[in-house]
Amino acid sequence: MADIDDYEDDAMQYAPDRRLLHYTSAALLSVLLLMAAILLWNRMVISIKSGEAGVLYSFFTGTDQGNIYGEGVHLIWPWNTMHIYDVRFQTREQTYSLLTNGGLAVNLKVAIRYQPDIRMLPLLHVAVGPDYLEKVVFPETEAALRRAVGQYGPEEVYTSHRGFLETVVVGSLSKMENRYIIVDDVLVKSVDLPNTVRDAIERKLALHEEEKAFQYRLSIEQKEAERKRIEAQGIQTYQQIIAKSLNPDLLRWQGVQATRDLATSPNAKTVVIGAGKDGLPLILGGDR
């Protein structure tokens, strides 16, 4: 009986210690779990913003090619990785040094508007990766520009063929969709030529504009000369028609009418009838 009593006394003595150890273990485990959650929060809780899409890479199975993760919050295992892509239209500028058909070097500054094909995003991630701009877009654009610029001279590239050049380049880059990238447009922002070549082209263009202005002025003068010729022919024809109807009796009658009008005028002073040649009235005096 004494041994049993001693055992019960020992059990009652160590019971608080076991409870304290249990609480301490639970608290320590909670702290460890909290720290792990804090440390792994960014790897487990993935936020995909508007205009973005995600591709999941699993440590055990590789890239998940069957799912594209849209905007929102996603929970993943900490040993997996979510690769986030911007799927909006983006614009990047790049400068290329190219050769014309005559071997002259020109520098083209272009703006490329592109976006990844969201339908093929997992395939893009597997085949190219997130740095597809440097690996595909820029090199393919340079190759298309070299083919297009090599067909023209420096003046054509510098002036009228620039819009056509953009069309050719965009048409060539349409094949890039096979690499899961969409190139919407390529805009030529500036063309830099050697100073001597640029000055020569600008002088030629200025002279061409002056020639067109001279041709325009010459055309105006020719039309004015034609107008005066037609006017002179009209006056001549009028005079010929009037000359056929004039005779001495009509002229005397017109003289009488003019004399009467002058006689009734407040400025008329002296009228001498029959003093002029052919008996026409002679008017003397004035309003003073």
UniProtKB/TrEMBL annotation:
It is a single-pass membrane protein. One of its GO terms (cellular component) is membrane. It comes from the Bacteria. The keyword Disulfide bond does not apply. GO terms for biological process: mitochondrion organization. It is found in: Membrane. This is Band 7 protein. InterPro entries: Band_7, Band_7/SPFH_dom_sf, Prohibitin. Residues 43-205 form the Band domain. Signal peptide: none annotated.
